[in-house]
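Repro case for the chain-ordering regression, as requested:
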Amino acid sequence: MSCKRKEKAAVVSQEQIAENIYSMWIQTEEISDFAVPGQFISMYTEDQSKLLPRPISLCEIDREKKRLRVVYRVTGKGTGTEQFSRLRPGESIQILGPLGNGFPMEPGTGKKVCLIGGGIGVPPMLELSKQLHAEKQLVMGYRDELFLTEEFEKNGTLYIATEDGSAGTPGNVIDAIAQKGLSPEVIYACGPAPMLRAVKSYAEEKHIPCYVSMEERMACGVGACLACVCRTPEIDAHSQVHNKRVCKDGPVFLSTEVEI
Amino acid sequence: MKNSAVCDTTVDLAGVKLKNPVMTASGTFGSGEEYSEFVDLNRLGAVVTKGVANVPWPGNPVPRIAETYGGMMNAIGLQNPGIDVFCRRDIPFLKKYDTKIIVNVCGKTTEDYLEVVERLADEPADLLEINISCPNVKEGGIAFGQDPRSAEHITREVKKHAKQPVIMKLSPNVTSIAEMAKAVEAGGADVISLINTLTGMKIDIHRQTFAVANKTGGVSGPAIRPIAVRMVYEAANAVKVPIIGMGGITCAEDALEFILAGASAVSVGTASFYNPMAAVQVAEGIEAYMRQHRTEHIRDLVGIVK
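-- result from build under test --
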């Protein structure tokens, strides 16, 4: 039997941690027992006019208390994520998970690794930074306002890049890596496509193994509907074409396995 | 004893006996493997697979889907691994379960369809569903499904080559669904399924472009259900062959509307995306309704609303 399941989770806490960025802890029955860094859950609204689940990455996993933390962006007025942000402690939410493959821990263990997060790709790097035993350089890119930085500082050396130059290195995560002279042996990254594209090309130029967590619009979240595919240079064994499913085969891929 | 009388949910589709009238809609359930982690496939009348062609198809560029009010729009473009891998991997997987296997067949030309149909002759597929109604591919698909003469012709060709009974899946993007139903019946269709998705468009005002890369997509989900019920009613009253009704079914009550309108069986599609257990729950709910209404056989409900 699979470890994936649909559950009604109770909201433990909800707080806004930056503009449009919310942090929610939820109490699960069993999903947290199986969850690993880099996986995600499908979150459902109670509103039947919004019937597709929202895939949200796991920011923290507390197996002892059977809790999960999601840090997510509210994408606008009247959206599903705005409904999530209005949930209060004691209220509940339907979730399906844990979904996706998660980050492979073995390649980075004991190495000098860079964990790179950008924008709403920052949160999944937190649980990875907690669980990965390695020399960790945490490079986090923000547009302007910072979040989760105190938590990251406990789990490695934090380097910040901001697009508006208000903190850390002005520019993007690659600018920060260059400015600080970082030389990772393994890279893990999650962020918007332009950032992943830059990280992929940086890593491949330097022949560094690089794991990227991809994003694409999803429907089922479990690999059935073939909505969230990404291009692959090789023919994929499952699809028999140059496509992999982000939700099921990913969201984490070795950078050389995918086109970004 | 009240509410506990034995009720018979079995359905006969062209000689194939389904344990209950509920199946999955093609394209929403893969070949069953992904959902088997959540759903007991043994409790479904049948699993209808994602459309399969003679060779692998890459499908459309992303984004392939968008949410719409009470539904969604998709333009997957019939990505599929081709009939060889399908026969080697997906049919043996489904064979492990006590449910009927309905293989959805797609193609660009008549020859493509026939190649797949012939390839399936010696496979343990129970029924074939011929997709002449996909709105998201340029050739084939809907090109056969919007003109009664083309639809009748391809049905006749498929029937000549098919070993299994043939379901023709109709598009709602036509002027007269009754005329289309009559055409495929005249061509020899054993069963008719409808509706496929309604062609729609959504504009992303933030990116100032189309929400799906294909520009148009097929709209599905609860928002289209009244249209689907009406079309099933019209088709059922135009032909004698059994009808599989679908379009926005989320629960047993929705499914019963289709059955009362004339569908002998129903498919659950988009609902699986927000409730993986939806199809099984629909089957259970229909049985509960039958007990409550002391319906001895599911066929006693089919098309009784005139």
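Ordering looks correct now. The mean pLDDT of chain A is 96.
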